[in-house]
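Hi team,

As requested, here is the filled-out complex form for the NAP run. I kept the field names the same as last time so the parser does not choke. Let me know if anything looks off before we queue the next batch.

— J.
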Amino acid sequence: MKTLVTGGGGQLAKALLRTTMGGHEVCVHGVETLDITSPRQVDDVVGCMRPEMIINTAAFTAVDDAETDEYSAAKVNDQGPGILADAARRYGSRLVHISTDFVFDGSSRRPWLTTDPTNPISVYGRTKRDGERAVMDSGLEEWTIVRTAWLYDGTSPNFFSTMIRLMNERDEIEVVSDQTGTPTLADSLANAIWCLVESGTTGMHHWTDSGSTTWHGFATAIEEIARETGLLKSKTEIRPIATKDYPTPARRPGFSVLDMTKTWKALEGTRAIPPVDWRENLKKLIKEKVHV
Ligand SMILES: NC(=O)c1ccc[n+]([C@@H]2O[C@H](COP(=O)([O-])OP(=O)(O)OC[C@H]3O[C@@H](n4cnc5c(N)ncnc54)[C@H](OP(=O)(O)O)[C@@H]3O)[C@@H](O)[C@H]2O)c1
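And here is what came back:
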C-alpha cells in the first residue's frame, strides 16, 4: 500500500519506518518538504504521490510552549489535520491521524473510553482535540484517529532520554508521583498503527502499552532496569513529589490511562501484537539496547 507519513523527524514517524510491514511503499516527509499547515504544499505532495494512506504524525508537541504560542500550536495541531483530511478526501486517500490522552481532563477513576467526552485542560490538549474534530468534520469517509500517551523511544528527546541523562549526572532527582498514565514504546504503537491500516479499521481508537504507573514509577523502573543492565553505573535516588511542587506552564491530566478494549477487538485475528505491559517494553528497549 502506498503510504505517506508526515512529521518525518519525529519519534513516531521513525518508529513507523522501523516497523514497516511487507507490502507497504512508504514515503516519509519531514516539515522541510511537507509542512502540513500549507494547503499548497499538501496539495502538491498528495496530488503527485496519490497515496492510498496518509499517516499524520506531525504535531506541535511542546506542551508547555503551547501555553504561550497558541497560534503555532493551533496551526499544526488543528488546521494541519484539517488540510490533510481535505486533501485525502479530494485524492481518495485514507487518513490515520494521531491524537493524545491530553484531550481528557484526568478526572476519571477508570480508563478513558473512546466515547468519553473530551475536556482538555491545556492549550496543547485543546488544539489536539480541535484537530480530531477537523478530521471528523472534514467530509472524509475513511478516517482513523488513534489516541496514545506517554510515547518514548531510546533516542528522541523524551522522558526516557531525559531521565537517563539526569541519572548519569545526579545522585538524586525529584519526579512527579500524582499523574497516572501508560508509558508507550513508540515501536509498539507503530506496529498497532500498521495493523489498523492493513485491517482497514476506521473510527476513534486508543492504543498504548498496557498497565499504568506514575511518572515517578516510570522513572524508578528506568533507573532499576538501566542499572541492572549496566546502562547506568551508579544508583540515583528518585524522590516522589506532588504536581503542585513542580509547577509547569501547562496543566496535565491527573489520570489519563486509555481503555483499548474497542481497538483490540478490532485488531484481534490480525497480526497485531496484544498490548504489552509497559515495563516489559521498557526492559526490551534497554536490554536489547534498541536505539539506546
Ligand atoms: N510524545 C508523546 O508523549 C505523545 C503522547 C500522546 C500523543 N502524542 C501524539 O503522537 C504524535 C507523534 O508524536 P511524536 O512523539 O512522534 O512527536 P515529535 O517527536 O515531536 O514529532 C512531531 C514531528 O512533527 C513535526 N512538525 C511540526 N510542525 C510540523 C508541520 N507544520 N508540518 C510537518 N511536520 C511538522 C516536528 O518537526 P520539528 O521537530 O522540526 O518541529 C516533529 O518532527 C503526535 O500527534 C502527538 O501529538 C505524542
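Two things worth flagging: The pocket of NAP is lined by residues 6-7, 9-12, 31, 34-37, 57-61, 76, 80, 98, 100-101, 128, 148-151, 156 (CB under 6 Å). The chain has a mean pLDDT of 96.

Thanks,
J.
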